[in-house]
Design goal:
The complex is a heterodimer of chains A (about 325) and B (about 500).
Chain A: H1 2-32, H2 42-51, H3 63-82, H4 98-118, H5 122-153, H6 158-167, H7 175-191, H8 210-213, H9 219-244, H10 256-282, H11 292-313
Helix pairs in contact in A: 1-3, 1-9, 1-10, 2-9, 3-4, 3-9, 4-5, 5-6, 5-7, 5-11, 7-9, 7-11, 9-10
Chain B: E1 4-9, H1 11-23, E2 27-35, E3 40-48, E4 53-61, E5 67-69, H2 76-89, E6 92-94, E7 142-147, E8 159-165, E9 168-175, H3 183-187, H4 192-200, H5 207-222, H6 228-256, H7 260-281, E10 290-291, E11 294-295, H8 303-322, H9 324-330, H10 338-344, H11 348-352, H12 360-363, H13 382-406, H14 421-425, E12 439-445, E13 450-457, E14 463-469, H15 471-475, H16 478-483, H17 491-498, H18 502-505
Parallel strand pairs in B: 1-4, 5-6
Antiparallel strand pairs in B: 2-3, 3-4, 7-8, 8-9, 10-11, 12-13, 13-14
Helix pairs in contact in B: 4-5, 5-6, 6-7, 6-13, 6-17, 7-8, 8-13
Classes of the chains: A mainly alpha (about 325), B alpha+beta (about 500).
């Protein structure tokens, strides 16, 4: 029962909290740059504003364009419900497989890339082409780095990986974890379109990756995409925290208090990670597009080393 | 005031005279058509620096059949001026290698020349000359990215057509001229003093540069002599304009590589400079500071304050270039070779960043600037253009300090009026050293580069023809040259490093 409550709770926290996370990160960035910045609630206000607008789809676009935001948001919600953020006892635990989660995230990205292509505009195609290039480097790294952690447990089920870590916290402190954590951290930045890979706040169409794909979206569709992008960021940061700092996550047999505590801990961990990411971005600049594959190839190498190390050290 | 040599030549002699002038180190600064009662007169202004030399070639053409042998083979800018004259006046450049329309877009009907006196109101759009002739690049994997003229950011309208393979730019075509306002025609018939507000608005960020070039031209045409103190005040305003614009660009270049914190800090410095501008002239963009016959400064900037700001800018520039990623993005991006810059007649920081020491402050000085040295960098890339700007901020503050020392402190708080406006408004009748009757030229190093204005007055003292040349007119063709071989996501950065004016280009 607590598993079901926990799963529902984590979906609600992700859904409600992700715009707040984005707002918090913008606020921190603004303050560090010496600006006042908009309030943390601004992202929610923006979403409300977009939802009140009329839905518009460009001429010549079809169901691919209209479905893309729904698929993106849908996959983000499913991932939010299965990844062990609050509880490892989700009723959908059977789906919480490493490969399934990586594939769900990829499905959302691909849907959006197809939506960008469906507009037939130069920017949609350009953004989609860049996004898929990154995706081809990001997805294997996610798979490999989590796989390195699964070797110790002997299962690719994320719930079991986290449960093992909760029961034996010292096992987390290992070269394998360190390598995997760095690799996963880098691809989280790439996957969520943050500096130095992409600049979420740019107005320069020609430099965009994620934003170029969604240029033609407006109104409620755009709100859905923004919201889903926030959820993906929240889930990936939550997963990062769950895998490498699993303390507080409710495991089998935990009571309602543990679930509440796990919620609070999750919010705290994600906020800290988000704040760290935002603060780090202030000191970074965007890489030249052709340097990004070098960065991602590097993170892939780290993930590969993590897998290798997990066999040698096991 | 510099002597200006005016030579009347025939159309046949033009090419020969031009090649001799170009060989003598002159550059074509301005070419414009004028409607005289009995002829269509073309004026080619050639200038050279150190010492300041100015020569005008005047060619009179039959107004019913104005044909001029093209100079495009001798000088690239001449070819552009010819296309402009063709579109606005119907002067046919015979033998021009690229006789496409330049200023008038293709939907304007054939045979309508908006600058002519008998042009009348704009006619209805048609499509008489077909679509715009974009050069199509063909090959496996080559595709086109059209961008603009409406952009996502708050920038001026321009259409860019990229032919790319993957992310690499094979060819870039910049299609401009979306903002033609007929400024030059608006000048005609106005009193010279009434032309000033127009000159200040040619390009919003170059109020002082254009106002000063205009005033210098009007003063030469009217034979008005401006006091040394007022000229120094004007030079101070010109440097203040350079300061706030360079600081804006330094921040914007950092912002374009997503290093936002330096942009925020540049914004802080910029705002202090704008407030200083307001104290000095009563206008944040320095309007009203330069007037025909003098300068109006409500207060003088404190050198200490400017030096503190210059130190801030130097620190920001050092932080930017000390950042590995920022330096990597700037270095080797969009290289404009010195030879190309020379051939295209590039001006301002674009030319200086390619190693060409062209600067009207040393070539065509209107007041003594003391130990002024032109800043150049050899690289020709975004980094060089960034460094030239950063260095020029320091130079400008030094110049202002030098100029302020010459402005007597006792007079400082008072407005610096040196000549009564009435004296300068009347068309000069004497002035034996003056060359053209009622005509004058003003050459000023605006923050973007050398601005040239040429004014002709009618017998009653009103403006008959004003020709304005913004450095952007020369520099726009350099952008596609610098970008060949660059990658698409670097275009905004390269474009910002040029930061050319659309409004100043298209008058």
């Amino acid at each position: 029962m607590t598993g079901l409550v926990g799963a529902v709770a984590q979906v609600v926290v992700v859904a409600v909290g992700s715009p707040l996370l984005v707002g918090l990160m913008r606020k921190i960035r603004a303050r560090l740059e010496g600006r006042v910045g908009a309030g943390v609630l601004q992202t929610w206000r923006d979403l409300r504003k977009l939802c009140r607008k009329e839905a518009i789809s460009p001429h010549g676009t079809g169901w691919v364009f209209r479905m893309a935001p729904l698929v993106l948001a849908g996959t983000a919600l499913v991932v939010a419900s299965v990844v062990p953020l609050v509880t490892t006892q989700s009723p959908m635990d059977g789906v919480a497989d490493l490969f399934a989660v990586a594939a769900l995230l990829a499905l959302g990205s691909v849907a959006l890339a197809l939506g960008g292509l469906d507009t037939g505009t130069a920017f949609g195609g350009m953004g989609a082409s860049r996004e898929v290039t990154l995706l081809a480097l990001v997805e294997p790294t996610i798979l490999l780095s989590v796989f390195a952690l699964s070797v110790r447990v002997g299962s690719t089920n994320l719930g079991e990986i986290v449960t093992a870590a909760v029961h034996d916290p010292m096992a987390v402190i290992s070269p394998v974890s360190l390598l995997a954590a760095v690799a996963l951290g880098v691809v989280t930045i790439a996957e969520t379109g943050r500096i130095p890979v992409d600049n979420p706040s740019t107005h320069l169409e020609l430099t965009m990756i994620h934003e170029a794909m969604v240029l033609e979206y407006a109104g409620p569709d755009l709100a859905l995409i923004e919201w889903a992008s926030g959820m993906r960021l929240f889930v990936l940061l939550g997963l990062l925290a769950g895998l490498f700092a699993p303390w507080g996550i409710a495991t089998a047999g935990a009571g309602p208090v543990a679930v509440v505590l796990a919620l609070v801990v999750l919010v705290f961990k994600v906020a800290v990670l988000g704040a760290g990411l935002a603060a780090g971005e202030v000191f970074m600049a965007k890489l030249r597009l052709f340097r990004i594959p070098e960065l991602l190839a590097g993170s892939f190498m780290l993930a590969l080393l993590a897998v290798a190390a997990s066999y040698f050290l096991a | 005031m510099t002597d200006r040599l005016v030579v009347n030549v025939t159309a046949a002699e033009l090419a020969d005279r031009t090649s001799r002038l170009l060989a003598g180190g002159y550059r074509l600064a301005l070419a414009a058509a004028h409607e005289d009662p009995d002829a269509l007169r073309l004026v080619y202004l050639y200038v050279a620096g150190s010492p300041d030399r100015r020569t005008e070639l005047h060619v009179r053409l039959d107004p019913n059949e104005p044909v001029i042998p093209s100079l495009a083979g001798l000088s690239f800018p001449a070819g552009r001026f010819e296309r402009e004259m063709r579109d606005l006046y119907g002067v046919v450049p015979a033998g021009h290698p690229l006789p496409h329309r330049l200023v008038r877009h293709h939907h304007w009907p054939r045979g309508w020349y908006p600058m002519r006196a008998d042009a009348g109101p704009p006619p209805a759009f048609g499509d008489p000359e077909g679509p715009y002739p974009f050069l199509t690049v063909e090959g496996p994997g080559v595709f086109e990215i059209p961008v603009g003229p409406v952009h996502a950011g708050l920038i001026e309208p321009g259409h860019f057509r990229f032919s790319v393979v993957g992310e690499t730019i094979l060819k870039l075509k910049a299609r401009l001229w979306f903002v033609h306002r007929g400024v030059e025609k608006l000048f005609a018939g106005r009193d010279p003093a009434e032309g000033l507000p127009l000159a200040e608005r040619v390009s919003g960020d170059t109020s002082v540069g254009h106002a000063l070039a205009y005033c210098l031209a009007v003063e030469e045409a009217t034979g008005c002599v401006v006091g040394e103190e007022a000229q120094r005040g004007r030079a101070v305003l010109l440097e203040l304009e350079r300061l706030y614009n360079h600081v804006t660009d330094i921040g914007a270049l950092c912002n374009d590589v997503a290093h936002g914190i330096l942009n925020s800090q540049s914004g802080r410095v910029r705002e202090q400079l704008l407030r200083l501008n307001e104290e000095v002239t009563g206008h944040r963009l320095l309007r009203g500071g330069v007037v025909p016959g003098g300068a109006v400064l409500r207060a003088l900037p404190a050198p200490g304050r400017l030096m503190a700001l210059a130190a801030d800018v130097a620190e920001l520039a050092a932080l930017a270039l000390g950042h590995g990623t920022v330096a990597d993005r700037f270095s080797g991006t969009a290289v404009l070779p010195a030879e190309a810059a020379q051939d295209l007649g590039a001006l301002g920081y674009v030319a200086r960043a390619s190693g060409i020491a062209v600067d009207a402050r040393s070539d065509h000085p209107f007041t003594d600037l003391g130990p002024f040295a032109v800043t150049t960098r050899p690289g020709g890339d975004v980094l060089a253009r960034f460094q030239v700007r950063a260095q020029e901020v320091a130079t400008s503050v030094e110049l202002i300090t030098y100029l302020l020392a010459g402005l007597s402190p006792a007079k400082a708080p008072n407005p610096l009026h040196t000549t009564t406006p009435g004296h300068c408004r009347s068309p000069g009748s004497g002035g034996g050293h003056r060359s053209g009757p009622g005509s004058g030229v003003g050459i000023v190093e605006g923050w973007r580069g050398t601005i040239t204005h040429r004014v002709e007055l009618a017998a009653d003292g009103t403006l008959r023809r004003v020709k304005i040349v913004d450095p952007s007119f020369f520099n726009w063709p350099a952008l596609p040259v610098a970008l060949s071989g660059a990658i698409v996501p670097d275009f905004p950065l390269a474009n910002k490093s040029f930061n050319l004016s659309y409004a100043g280009n298209d008058l």
